[in-house]
Hints:
The protein has helices at residues 39-42, 81-90, 108-119, 138-149, 169-182, 193-205, 212-217, 220-237, 249-260, 271-275, 278-281, 301-312, 351-360, 366-380; strands spanning 4-13, 18-26, 29-35, 48-51, 56-59, 61-66, 71-72, 75-76, 93-101, 126-132, 154-158, 185-189, 241-243, 265-269, 317-318, 398-408, 427-437, 440-443. By secondary structure, the protein is α/β, with parallel strands linked by helices.
Amino acid sequence: xxxxxxxxxxxxxxxxxxxxxxxxxxxxxxxxxxxxxxxxxxxxxxxxxxxxxxxxxxxxxxxxxxxxxxxxxxxxxxxxxxxxxxxxxxxxxxxxxxxxxxxxxxxxxxxxxxxxxxxxxxxxxxxxxxxxxxxxxxxxxxxxxxxxxxxxxxxxxxxxxxxxxxxxxxxxxxxxxxxxxxxxxxxxxxxxxxxxxxxxxxxxxxxxxxxxxxxxxxxxxxxxxxxxxxxxxxxxxxxxxxxxxxxxxxxxxxxxxxxxxxxxxxxxxxxxxxxxxxxxxxxxxxxxxxxxxxxxxxxxxxxxxxxxxxxxxxxxxxxxxxxxxxxxxxxxxxxxxxxxxxxxxxxxxxxxxxxxxxxxxxxxxxxxxxxxxxxxxxxxxxxxxxxxxxxxxxxxxxxxxxxxxxxxxxxxxxxxxxxxxxxxxxxxxxxxxxxxxxxxxxxxxxxxxxxxxxxxxxxxxxxxxxx
Length: 467
């Protein structure tokens, strides 16, 4: 364990405050803050001093939706826990919550154990797990109670992907009823997969095989319908609901309506829906396959409604749904049949920078940036104030951020284990300079100084937005 570190002269930004303050770190935690230049700050002594003059001092990002090493469509996501968490650190994220997968016919415990085995000793930053529930039965429901007790407090279900992860309304209702009792949070992939499969079959029969048809068959109305249905099922069960990767304005409208009624319903979107569109899916020479993810990218006019949702708090969190597949050899599995393109985009390294660009562009405020990227995901998934803020007692997960540095996003320079960038050539203002995880330097002035195995498993309490 390192001794004491003091970060001097930066603008400390949290979800609630902006203050020019020095930050004292001791034994891996934030020990104290004091206004820069005051006697209290001058009294801070430490073995290591980091000069943050002219920079932001922000909490490490919390990415509550990643898929490292996920098996999908006959292949695996190309980032391991080692490469993925290292890339996350480069992008200013210091905690991920990944998804352990229950396979049909197997127990939740088997799935969770398998994911612990993948991650343990390999992560550069701290990590937690959600549980994908693919097979709801009496045993599974009992296991949900046990998982909540040991810090896996959220369960993902799919209204999409029949035959793989899909749950019908009855299974969803049972899981929601259980979570209403045990305090867990149901996370929903809200798309009508049964109807989508019909449209996929019909499109392929017409010879419509290019990547752009992926977006056309996964209709915004079928995202909205599933979102509406999930909300009503949660209401019947008396359970809270968190809808993942919201991409369509019609789905945002469903969430807004439910929240206006006072329902405990939450929504997440992702950078790809805020910055990319069906224009990318339509790129020629199969380039569009790089942008195939589900929910799919939408026409550009949806972006304004997503930004509005983030400003009005109808959407509360921006996560990445980081699930990278290489263009060569993986995305290419779908040449001639868009339905065989592995679904997912790389993004764990880009999120904090893209959202800072949103601050520069006037979409959100600096504090809202920290709120949607750090504080709210930590609260939503039971890790606050250990994670997601800079306050005495919190883990010293701290990023020194240069708001003026210019960068161009490229696969040439990123650290994710994938052969393309979804944001290739994009000019951004702002860049991570130094990253501490529990007081240890992981990125030091744009050099990786971390190590696999520093990151530890983080059990979580239940959602902190519920009574």
